[in-house]
Specification:
The complex is a heterotrimer of chains A (170), B (296) and C (800).
Chain A (H helix, E strand, L loop, with lengths): L3 E7 L2 E7 L5 H8 L18 E4 L2 E4 L12 E3 L13 H8 L9 H14 L5 H8 L10 H17 L11
Parallel strand pairs in A: 1-5
Antiparallel strand pairs in A: 1-2, 3-4, 3-5
Chain B lengths: L6 E4 L3 H11 L3 E4 L5 H6 L7 E4 L9 E3 L3 E5 L4 H6 L1 H6 L1 H7 L5 H4 L4 H7 L5 H8 L3 E6 L2 E6 L4 E3 L2 E2 L6 E8 L6 E9 L9 E9 L5 E9 L6 E2 L1 H7 L6 H14 L10 H28 L2
Parallel strand pairs in B: 1-3, 2-3
Antiparallel strand pairs in B: 4-5, 5-10, 6-7, 6-10, 8-9, 11-12, 12-13, 13-14
Chain C lengths: L22 H5 L15 E7 L5 E7 L1 H5 L3 E6 H7 L21 E2 L5 E7 L2 H10 L1 E6 L6 H4 L15 E9 L2 H7 L2 E9 L11 E7 L4 E6 L6 H8 L7 E4 L14 H14 L3 E4 L2 H5 L9 E9 L5 E13 L24 E10 L13 H19 L3 H8 L8 E2 L5 E2 L4 H11 L2 H13 L3 E4 L2 E7 L5 H5 L9 E8 L5 E5 L8 H13 L7 E4 L16 H28 L6 E4 L2 E4 L2 E6 L1 H10 L12 E8 L18 E13 L6 E11 L6 H21 L29 E6 L16 H18 L8 E2 L3 H12 L1
Parallel strand pairs in C: 1-12, 8-30, 10-11, 14-15, 21-22, 28-29
Antiparallel strand pairs in C: 1-5, 2-4, 2-6, 3-5, 7-15, 8-13, 9-10, 9-12, 13-14, 16-17, 18-27, 19-27, 20-21, 20-26, 23-24, 24-25, 27-28
Classes of the chains: A alpha+beta (170), B alpha+beta (296), C alpha+beta (800).
């Protein structure tokens, strides 16, 4: 089928591209836009490695076609950094707690938990687990990931003192 | 795992959807959330020549209705339904079941109507729709029609929808009067968030003296379609839902079904789990009703 | 959990909590995996696979596929086999030949039959659908015991039998010990076919440069001697293949060994004159990726006394390796290096049988065969305790090797370096508050629930050597198993180390920087670690065998020590004092008795790089050193009885989970998980703990969820992530851990391996817990994975 023009906003930057209808969103991000931080793990919607934020909500980018994103907004791991280019508190907490090993599932984990913390600055452990329940990690056993999200939440609340109380001992 | 080539139409209203389906012929397929269709296409088990994207159709989004019925437009996200106070108030069974549907990322994309039209026998939403005797509305170029859900599920991922029809609304009757409602949703799956091996949905009304005045029971994963278990529901009526009655009613459910086996569960395991899930769902519903009756 | 090893005061950087070097790039989305390698003009490969478990290939028609716009080429097994040498096997099996694409005959469902090359992966898949293959289905066999039958269909008719390897090893006076023991028991235990299943599939990109005659390879690889094997198969000189080790590997745990993928892609790149990429999709990965793990039937006999002393074991291990041998049969050999576990068992008989069937071939999996064997041994110990009505912990402690007995030589010839099993066991019992844990289990039981506590120990043989190769294949006399590191201090005084292998999440850059920093007393944060390529670097045997902390750590120590010595010698020359009157501190060298007289790091570097006139006579200019280290205690061939000294170092773990089983559905829920571990000195505690958490999660998968299941038609039923069930966060409990450190006397800083232990112990521990829960009903289950339907069916036998 002949390529169609789409316009997608990714990490606040607008891109115009020609895509064949069958190109998945993850292949578009990686192969067309060169945003290779988003990974594919299963291409059938189970592993969560390709998680991105679409119109504010985490989704699996292997289960959408790029053409469906025409006119929409996507956030990827490349957009997580702070305005000054430094790490976000969530990224920093992942580093601090060594919440990754091979790093392959990490962008998906970050996007899933970034969305969580945006809507819920003080998540319980169960809420963290629910948020990453569809993101498979083979390296870590998830323990240090849950710890990272708790740490990030605590630090982010600390930066905005009105946002809640501490729930983790560092 | 790349889909075969297809053409793409983004519809902006229901009329456009119907027109596209009408023009596209039988190889034309609607994409809503795509959480089942896209993997099937990636494995090339599905290869529509045209997909009609209904995600931009505003008429297909939203939750409304009145005292007697909750209306969920077909392309409403599962996550939106999960968060909806209206769903919790009017269709608590659906609210309960939604927590078992996939994961946050899939619920953010997956739709209520899409799941019903997809008719996976182990999916939670079609099971709830059947339990509550949902009314469905479908439209085609020829107009809208109402579909009784009792005749909707035809077989494994097959429904009475014609290729040119688009499911547009799901009407869930609100149970009013006669007492207090209790709901139960139980499933056995190997991992959390997986499709169920067996799922049971129960909704009851218990009157002020603790007697069951109304009951609906259905099972998923025990046949090519979700199944209503009338014998069990009838056995509960007019009883005070004592353990013995509940046990016998659940036993009836196991006798009503003829499940198949697969790599995850044998037919016998499914049958026995069906009894257990029905029993637990009835108890969950009963206890919830009694609790609510005690603390109105 | 204590975050520092007890011996940490010895160290400045080692054993301290420190952020890793690698994580920074991954959290920014800046990892560079093989699928991120994009080259101009690159073409993409999709595979045509056999739908039959066994079939003659009568004809392959490619015309229709070639008509598609964008399809560049289609190649078949016949073409590839003519142009390449067969892939290497771990055993001496000249009649079990293997090529990347099937030749004349397909031997398992999913085997690659032809490859389609196109402008995109999408188009390649379109092409693959149009390749027509005429198959003539043949009889097949998927069950290992059936495959051993006289009249079984032959997987490799030229080989004459489906048995690829069979040998019975007798270590010590087994007959006598059995005869003299008070009790004997026998049982069968089955280990289901699972694997490591990384989230990244295997992938490779190759580019041929005609001008230089080199093949550049980027791959998601974890494999010893990978460049040499590719070159040999492609009939190239080994120095024509350049493997780039700076590709991040998205998980491996053993299986990322895509030799066949690389030979195919290397051949295509050369033939087509363009870069070629093959990234397995998940379906290809699960079937034709040839990366399943061991599938074993154990028949076990144990001889023991009434006082709990375990006297002897007989183990018969029948392994179903699938359709080709590869290195998989050697996974029956490695367990010989710890064949008595952590116990003082005086004699063992071990029969290893490797059988080929029409299933997907195996690859190396975390622990290289040790986890199934540990499951069999630990199951035996539990059964001994139950037979004697003794406590399972007590039986273990009764038989543990005592800390004053190290080094301890086991009957099969390996020498355990060090350990303190009793202390680690006691520490984890304390961590779990064991009496309270028992009370909790019993309270659950009193409520009518099925609850059980698991007890399991495991050894993690680490450091690696090749001793199992000559043991199973006398034609192979490999005893060298080395690792290297190059370190340099540049003119500006910054330190760079070069390692010669890729990493798959094990933190090798952190390892090398920490160790180098420790030796040179320089902040590891400022030390850069480069992963080189195979032509530019010294030998490596890759991160297999839990060996890198030991071997790469040892090599990094060695190189840094040379540099430190050189800095001291330069200072001695310039201060005109003998080196033994100087002290090295933080990179500066001072006179011991006169600290005011010193030469700073920058001054020493300046001399080495720019002031040859101030260098000791004849000293090499600059500051660079390489160190190649042979595995400690390596270098010996097996004796005639099959006694052999295998891995040098032995880590230890003691696991204690608490589980509850749903009586009606058979579902297992892990309520608690405690672990005590001892891997000697921890270089980086966060990395060690992460490996253990992850290993336990992997082991929980093997115990409860994961199986490559086949039906009677020889078809894989669990070839997607919807059916092959990796544990999610919901299935993994909060794991509580206690550290202990018994340094190894054989390694540079007392370190031992730690990448495998969680997976080696968790399956046995979870199985032990399930069986403890079932024991009050008089039931037991000794087959993994223990899926809900299996447990429920067993429970029902009691209720009827």
């Amino acid at each position: 089928m002949k390529p169609r023009e789409i316009s997608v906003t990714v990490n606040a930057k607008r891109y115009r591209s020609e895509v064949p209808p069958r190109l998945t969103l993850v292949d578009y991000l990686r192969e067309v836009l060169g945003l290779i931080g988003t990974h594919t793990g299963c291409e059938h919607g189970v592993c969560g490695a390709c998680s991105v934020i679409f119109d504010g909500q985490p989704i699996r980018s292997c289960l959408m076609f790029a053409i469906q994103a025409d006119g929409h907004e996507v956030e990827t791991v490349e957009g997580l950094a702070e305005a000054d280019g430094g790490l976000s508190p969530l990224q920093d907490a992942f580093w601090e707690t060594h919440a990754l090993q091979c790093g392959y599932c990490t962008p998906g984990m970050l996007m899933a938990t970034h969305a969580l913390l945006r809507s819920n600055p003080d998540p319980t452990v169960d809420e963290i687990k629910e948020a990453i329940g569809g993101n498979l990690c083979r390296c870590t056993g998830y323990q240090q990931i849950v710890e990272a999200v708790r740490l990030a939440a605590k630090r982010m609340r600390g930066a905005h003192p009105e946002a809640g109380k501490d729930t983790i001992d560092e | 795992m790349k889909a075969a080539a297809f053409d793409y139409i983004r519809a902006s209203d229901i009329a456009e959807v119907c027109q596209a389906l009408n023009d596209g012929g039988p190889d034309c397929k609607i994409i809503a959330g795509g959480q089942t269709l896209v993997p099937m296409m990636a494995m090339r088990l599905a290869r529509p020549s045209i997909i009609v994207d209904i995600n931009a159709v505003e008429e297909l989004q939203g939750i409304g209705g009145d005292e007697s019925s909750l209306v969920i437009k077909a392309c409403t996200r599962q996550a939106a339904a999960e968060r909806s106070p209206e769903v919790r108030a009017k269709a608590p069974l659906l609210a309960k079941a939604l927590r078992f549907v996939g994961h946050p990322q899939t619920r953010n994309r997956g739709t209520v109507g899409g799941s019903i039209a997809n008719a996976d026998p182990v999916a939670e939403i079609p099971l709830v729709a059947l339990t509550l005797d949902a009314g469905l509305v479908a439209e085609s170029a020829g107009g809208a029609k109402n579909i009784d859900i009792s005749g909707f599920f035809h077989g494994l991922m097959e429904t009475s929808l014609a290729p040119d029809e688009c499911l547009t609304e799901v009407h869930l009757p609100v149970w009013n009067g006669g007492g207090v409602i209790g709901t139960g949703f139980q499933e056995v799956s190997i991992r959390a968030g997986d499709f169920a091996i067996v799922a049971a949905a129960v909704q009851l009304v218990v009157d002020e003296s603790g007697v069951c005045r109304r009951a609906a029971v259905a099972l998923g994963g025990v046949a090519p379609t979700p199944l209503r278990i009338e014998a069990t529901a009838e056995a509960l009526l007019s009883s005070d839902l004592d353990a013995e009655t509940v046990g016998e009613a659940a036993h009836l459910a196991a006798n009503e079904i003829d499940p198949g086996g697969d790599v995850h569960a044998s037919a016998e395991y499914r049958r026995r789990c069906a009894r257990v899930m029905v029993e637990r769902a009835i108890i969950e519903a009963r206890d919830e009703a009694l609790r609510r009756a005690a603390n109105p | 959990m204590s975050s520092e090893a007890p011996d940490s005061p010895r160290f400045r950087y080692v054993s301290r909590k420190r952020r890793t070097k690698e994580d920074r790039r991954f959290i920014a989305g800046e990892g560079r995996f093989v699928a991120d390698i994009g080259l101009p003009g690159m073409k993409h490969v999709a595979l045509v696979t056999s739908p039959h478990p066994a079939a003659r290939i009568d004809a392959i028609r490619t015309e229709e596929a070639l008509k598609i716009e964008g399809v560049v080429a289609v190649i078949t097994g016949e073409e590839l086999a003519q142009a390449t040498n067969p892939l290497m096997s771990g055993l001496n099996l000249p009649d079990v030949r293997r090529f990347p694409l099937a030749v004349d005959r397909a031997r398992y469902a999913g085997e690659w039959v032809a490859a389609v090359v196109a402008d995109s992966r999408y188009i390649a898949e379109d092409g693959a659908e149009l390749v027509e293959v005429d198959y003539d289905p043949l009889p097949f066999v998927v069950d290992a015991e059936e495959a051993m039958a006289e009249d079984a269909p032959a997987v490799h008719p030229a080989h004459g039998t489906n048995v690829l390897y069979r040998r019975k090893f007798v270590y010590g006076a087994v007959e006598e010990d059995f005869a003299a023991a008070d009790h004997r028991l026998a049982f069968r235990a089955c280990w289901g076919r699972n694997s490591t299943v990384p989230i990244e599939t295997f992938g490779v990109v190759a580019k041929w440069h005609p001008g230089t005659g080199t093949l550049d390879v980027w791959a998601s690889i974890q494999m010893p001697k990978y460049p040499e094997q590719i070159a040999r198969a492609l009939r190239l000189d080994a120095n024509c293949v350049r493997v780039h080790y700076d590709v991040d590997v998205g998980g491996s745990y053993g299986v990322k060994r895509g030799i066949k993928h690389t030979v195919l892609v290397g051949y295509l790149a050369r033939k087509l004159g363009c870069p070629v990429r093959l990234i397995e999709d998940r379906l290809e990965n699960m079937t034709g990726g040839d990366a399943h793990g061991p599938e074993r039937i154990f028949d076990v006999e144990a001889a023991f006394n009434g006082d709990g002393e375990i006297r002897s074991l007989r183990l018969r291990a029948l392994d179903n390796v699938g359709a080709y041998a590869g290195r998989a049969p050697l996974q029956l050999a490695k367990p010989i290096g710890a064949i008595v576990g952590p116990y003082r068992i005086k004699s063992v008989e071990y029969e290893a049988i490797s059988v080929t069937t029409n299933k997907t071939p195996q690859e190396a999996v975390r622990g290289f065969g040790q986890s199934p064997t540990n499951f069999a041994i630990e199951t035996a110990v539990d059964k001994i305790a139950r037979t004697l009505d003794r406590d399972r912990v007590e039986i273990r402690k009764r038989n543990f090797i005592r800390k004053d007995e190290f080094p301890y030589t086991i009957p099969s010839g390996s020498e355990y370096d060090s350990g303190d099993y009793h202390t680690v066991q006691d520490k984890v019992l304390d961590l779990a508050d064991f009496p309270a844990l028992i009370a909790r289990r019993d309270a659950l039981r009193a409520e009518g629930k099925l609850a059980g506590i698991g007890i399991a120990s495991c050894l993690e043989p680490s450091g690696g050597n090749a001793a199992f190769e000559p043991l199973f294949n006398p034609a192979n006399e490999t005893t060298t198993w080395m690792e290297s590191c190059v370190t340099k201090i540049d003119l500006a005084g910054t330190v760079t180390s070069i390692m010669a292998t890729a990493s798959a999440g094990q933190g090798h850059e952190t390892l090398v920087a920490t160790v180098t920093g420790e030796e040179l007393e320089r902040d590891p944060d400022g030390i850069r670690v480069v992963r080189s390529d195979s032509l530019a670097s010294l030998p490596s045997n890759s991160p297999v065998a839990s060996r890198m902390a030991i071997m790469l750590g040892g090599a990094a120590s060695g190189a840094a020590k040379i540099l430190k010595r050189k800095l001291i010698d330069i200072a001695a020359h310039n201060l005109q004092l003998p080196a033994d009157r100087l002290v090295y501190e933080g990179g500066n060298v001072a006179v011991r008795d006169d600290p005011g007289r010193s030469l700073a790091w920058d001054e020493l570097v300046e001399i080495a790089h720019r002031k040859y006139h101030q260098m000791p006579l004849g000293m090499e200019p600059g500051l660079q050193a390489s160190y190649v280290w042979e595995v400690p205690k390596g270098g010996e061939l097996p004796d005639a009885a099959g006694r052999v000294r295998m891995y040098p170092c032995y880590s230890f773990e003691a696991h204690i989970p608490l589980v509850e089983i749903d009586r009606q559905t058979g579902q297992v829920k892990i309520l608690e998980y405690f672990i005590g571990h001892d891997c000697g000195t921890m270089i980086n505690p966060d990395i060690v703990h992460g490996m253990i958490y992850g290993g336990i999660a992997h082991g929980i998968g093997a115990a409860l969820y994961e199986i490559f299941a086949y039906n009677d038609d020889g078809q894989l039923l669990t070839g997607t992530f919807m059916d092959y069930l990796l544990p999610s966060v919901h299935e993994i409990p909060d794991i509580k851990m206690v550290d202990h450190s018994t340094p190894s006397p054989l390694t540079s800083m007392g370190q031992k391996g730690t990448g495998e232990g969680g997976y080696l112990g968790a399956p046995a521990a979870v199985a032990s817990a399930v069986n403890d829960a079932l024991a009050p009903l008089g039931l037991e289950l000794n087959a993994l994975p223990m899926r809900p339907g299996d447990i429920e069916a067993l429970l029902r036998t009691k209720s009827e």
